[in-house]
Amino acid sequence: xxxxxxxxxxxxxxxxxxxxxxxxxxxxxxxxxxxxxxxxxxxxxxxxxxxxxxxxxxxxxxxxxxxxxxxxxxxxxxxxxxxxxxxxxxxxxxxxxxxxxxxxxxxxxxxxxxxxxxxxxxxxxxxxxxxxxxxxxxxxxxxxxxxxxxxxxxxxxxxxxxxxxxxxxxxxxxxxxxxxxxxxxxxxxxxxxxxxxxxxxxxxxxxxxxxxxxxxxxxxxxxxxxxxxxxxxxxxxxxxxxxxxxxxxxxxxxxxxxxxxxxxxxxxxxxxxxxxxxxxxxxxxxxxxxxxxxxxxxxxxxxxxxxxxxxxxxxxxxxxxxxxxxxxxxxxxxxxxxxxxxxxxxxxxxxxxxxxxxxxxx
Length: 362
Prior knowledge:
- By secondary structure, this protein is an alpha/beta fold.
- Helix content is 32%, strand content 26%.
- The protein has an eight-stranded mixed β-sheet.
- The longest helix is centred in the middle third of the chain and has 20 residues, at 122-141.
């Protein structure tokens, strides 16, 4: 068995993704090594004991990691594929690698044929779209049922580096990303004040399922947006008929102000405190990440909000280490206060040199 774990990430963040994976594996007492080349948008982890790679894959959930967009159990790289009839050797390699794990009834949740999220692989993605139909036909011809969501089926991924080389991999959909290439396809609203609105919208999709979104973002809840100008994050609440206190010395989008759902306070976001607790506090202020972590911690300890979504800006080189230190600032203080909470952190697709954090009390 020559299997590895394959992780997608943003190009340029391979070392942070690799550090996090090694730390996670070490905590599970699984020894191994990573292959991470800068600006390739993926990382491979191989265990010294091949049997342990499946154990780690079964244990791992994408939510456990900050910098990974997707986690797959993968074969070795298959190179020198023929230009014609590629489906035949790919299918043969698929069964050779994964017959021990595929349901006897041959159910697959779906088929994703993907490329890496880099400029140089955009042409490969065009090939992937064309190759999907013949690969689906090959699978069905061999007796596989694709797309039965009621089964505990795994999803098949083919990651092409070129038209003649690919990884063959499996994904456990309930523990990994639901999106093609691990990237949510969100459309920028024409009436939104800034593209930053997509960061908060993606966070709502990544951190909550549909029922949780309906519960936490229902009409009647209240929100504070620190560093709100011109209103990209405020927009996500207003579109859901949620009242927002927007705190920023800068100007707010006039269309948002006309809705009657926004109270704009020209104040310093670090000094403002609400007169009474609110349901939401969100923050996308450009500041040192530790200072943001300390601000969130104070609000949480004083129970000034129930839910928080905030960004930590990461211009430094060792981003993984900085994120750990910031999250420790929050968790240590909340544990000291005996507060019950949930905390998740993710490097979102619409983030750049930053990560997005969700904190919920209770």
